[in-house]
Amino acid sequence: MPVTETVVLRLPFDGTWRAVNSPARRVPSHGSDLFATTHAIDFVAVAGQEPARRRDWRTALATEPPERFVGFGRPVLSPAAGRVVTVHDGEPDHAARRSVPARLSYALTQASRARGGAGALAGNHVVLAAGDGAYVVLAHLRAGSIGVRVGQHLEPGEPVGECGNSGNSTQPHVHLQAMDDADPFRARGVPMVFAGLRVWPAGGGPPAELRHGMPGEGDVVEPW
């Protein structure tokens, strides 16, 4: 059934996270409509303004262990009320890549990951039927952390798993998207907004408390 309205969601975490690849900046937000990512958004946990607990030579020249990132292992929460329709676990959490050399070498394997199916792209993930024909994906979860099962009903804010670095991911983060089918290979992306969020603008200034909104690129957000 076509989804005719914007999907309203809860932020899928507590604490402060930075918005990356936001549809407030551009649509399609991830540069393509493939895999229903048209209106998707990524969130990277931060402490202050930093996503990781340390920087060293590996940050500039090589890969880094995902455990040094603030978000790795943080709880990921259900963004909506609904029924779990897909659970995929067992994909490994791989090394993080912030350096230019590491990111370039990783980009060369992008095509092979696209051919590898949902697990190679989304990593460990959960799909939730959120009502009115909308489905919501939480992707790149930590291996072995998913604590829900197919058929289970969730309420907003209930634990789903933990933030990881599985699948097509260069550092630990949460990927969230809404779509009109449970299968991202045949679905279309659906617009979404978040309810009850506090936003620190990327350009500086005091935070704003929004009843509904979509954070801009680089904004730091937390539930309000």
TrEMBL record:
PANTHER family: MUREIN HYDROLASE ACTIVATOR ENVC (PTHR21666:SF270), PEPTIDASE-RELATED (PTHR21666). GO terms for molecular function: metalloendopeptidase activity. Transmembrane segments: none annotated. This is Peptidase M23-like protein. CDD domains: M23_peptidase (cd12797). It comes from Modestobacter roseus. It comes from the Bacteria. SUPFAM superfamilies: Duplicated hybrid motif. It holds the Pfam family Peptidase_M23. InterPro entries: Cell_wall_metabolism_enzyme, Dup_hybrid_motif, M23ase_b-sheet_dom. Residues 73-184 form the M23ase beta-sheet core domain.
